[in-house]
UniProtKB/TrEMBL annotation:
Function: Ligates lysine onto the cytidine present at position 34 of the AUA codon-specific tRNA(Ile) that contains the anticodon CAU, in an ATP-dependent manner. Cytidine is converted to lysidine, thus changing the amino acid specificity of the tRNA from methionine to isoleucine.
GO molecular function annotation: ATP binding; tRNA(Ile)-lysidine synthase activity
Name of the protein this chain belongs to: tRNA(Ile)-lysidine synthase
Family, similarity comment: Belongs to the tRNA(Ile)-lysidine synthase family.
Pfam families assigned to the protein according to its UniProt record, in alphabetical order: ATP_bind_3, TilS
Protein's UniProt keywords contain ATP-binding: yes
Domain comment in the entry: The N-terminal region contains the highly conserved SGGXDS motif, predicted to be a P-loop motif involved in ATP binding.
Keywords attached to this entry: ATP-binding, Cytoplasm, Ligase, Nucleotide-binding, tRNA processing
Record-listed ATP binding positions: S6, G7, G8, A9, D10, S11
Region Disordered, residue ranges: 74-94
Subcellular location: Cytoplasm
């Protein structure tokens, strides 16, 4: 198993826990730290993290440098509030995350790791739920992060039920040095503002327990979303004709939550990227079923087009 470690309190506490448990479970345990190169001295910090992880007797331990891109680099070095509170000039947080996961995937393959452990805590989960709520993307967005993700279940989050303060206290008790990423306190970033302003304001107004309640909401939403996704997968074949085309009348008869999932599945199957397909896109396609007034085709991400023709919904790449 590998632990992904930034040097922050959450991932250092996780690395320490893995180092403690691995011999007892007869598990080979190592660690990877990813240097995004977005700050001066990042290579030196990565080397320091490697040394600390090695002192825990984790093996193998390595630092992997990734290239995020010049536009992202500029946005991180001089962030300016843009649309939705994200730094102007693109999505540096998303670009850095994509580069990080690509590096972790490669490290897992290189070392033959069965799993990669991530240090996300209950506080991270609460933040993710609130961000999903702000986007208005439905139940799946409110379900936050799963404990196990990845095509083969590679990524595991064992600290999702643990609060951030406990992880930090674990490092303090063990005298483990930690590094606090300044980006996590930068108000130019939406998650940072939510962490330092939004959640404290909610706790002040509603009392303690907000984080726990949001994390519980994530699990309940995930259970609901999984059930609805399964229903949609079963319903999809029943709303297609012999030629495989979606029949509008049968789609109309489905509950809205199931119908929209069927439409989303069909759009993705036609070539629309899942990460770019938002609730508003599916709502427009849904209106071809529920609010048909002779409107034209709906353009979806990935050059996919949805059009109503002769009582059928045709979704295909242009």
């Amino acid at each position: 198993m590998l632990v992904a470690c930034s040097g922050g309190a959450d991932s250092m506490a996780l690395a320490s826990a893995l180092a403690f448990e691995a011999p007892r479970l007869s598990v080979r345990a190592g660690a990877v730290t990813v240097d995004h190169g977005l700050q001066d001295g990042s290579a030196l910090r990565a080397a320091e993290v490697v040394a600390r992880l090695g002192a825990m007797r984790l093996d193998p331990v390595e630092a992997v440098a990734v290239t995020v891109g010049s536009a992202t680099r500029a946005a991180h070095s001089a962030p300016t509030a843009g649309t939705g509170g994200r730094p102007a000039g693109g999505g540096p947080e998303a670009a850095a995350r994509d580069a990080r996961y690509a590096a972790l995937d490669a490290a897992a393959e290189r070392h033959g790791a069965a799993a990669v452990l991530l240090g996300h805590t209950r506080d991270d989960q609460a933040e993710t739920v609130l961000l999903g709520l702000a986007r208005g993307s439905g139940t799946r967005s409110l379900s936050g992060m799963a404990a196990v993700t990845g095509a083969t279940g590679r990524y595991r989050r064992p600290f999702l039920q643990l609060d951030r303060q406990t992880a930090r206290k674990a490092c303090l008790v063990q005298s483990i040095p930690v590094w606090d990423d300044p980006h996590n306190a930068d108000p130019a970033y939406t998650r940072s503002r939510l962490r330092h302003e939004g959640l404290p304001a909610l706790e002040k107004a509603l009392g303690k327990g907000v984080v726990e309640a949001l994390a519980r909401t994530a699990q309940l939403s995930r259970d609901d979303a999984d059930a609805l996704d399964g229903w949609a997968a079963d319903a999809e074949q029943g709303v297609r004709d012999e030629a495989g085309q979606l029949e509008c009348a049968k789609l109309y008869a489905l509950p809205p939550a199931v119908r929209r999932r069927v439409l989303r599945r069909a759009a993705i199957a036609a070539g629309s990227p899942a990460g770019s397909l938002f609730a508003r896109h599916i709502e427009e396609v849904d209106r071809l079923i529920t609010g048909w007034r002779g409107q034209g085709a709906i353009n979806l991400p990935g050059r996919v087009e949805a059009r109503r023709q002769g009582g059928r919904l045709v979704i295909r790449q242009g």
